[in-house]
User: What shape does this take?
Amino acid sequence: MTRELTIALAKGRILDETLPLLARAGIEATDDLATSRKLVFATNHKNIKLVLIRSADVATYVQYGAADLGIAGKDVLLEHGGEGLYERLDLKIAPCRLMTAGFAERSLPRTRLKVATKYPRITRQFFLDQGRQVELIKLYGSMELAPVVGLADIIVDLVDTGSTLKANGLTPLDHIMDISSRLIINRASLKMKNQPIRELVDKIEAAVE
Assistant: This one.
């Protein structure tokens, strides 16, 4: 009996680069993920299915075994903490930078800096390493608005082209880290379904090369 494998994929920009990579590895969904309203997809392999979820949830699905494998940005993995999962491969897709951003001409307060971000764990550690105390304001979207309306002094967010920052009068400041998407595996699945997972990882690794 062939063991079924579930791969969790992130919606949005990562998906646009994930699907061609999986296709090169010989895995294709039987429906169009971009247009279908479904969340679970069969593939051209009877034992492999795909689930489509929010980027921030991929690591959680893999951690708890709802998916055997997942593809998520390094930012998501660092923020999650990595419990219960194994980061196997840098897929070298969806590259971007995690940066602080704010108004170039505005001097920042020397005391408690207000930082808006959806990455509180990474942000706290970054400023802790600099010996700075910050007040973190967790937001889930429209990060660029926070400094504009005075909610925060700066933001910490992913920067791709920087055009959204520029459109809102902001500029990238500190480079925190480079980000790319990674293949992650549930630790229990790796033991229970070692053979099919290894075969799948080999195909994906060859597709990355």
Q: What stands out?
A: The chain has two domains: 5-94+180-208, 96-179. The CA atoms of residues 26 and 203 lie 8 Å apart.
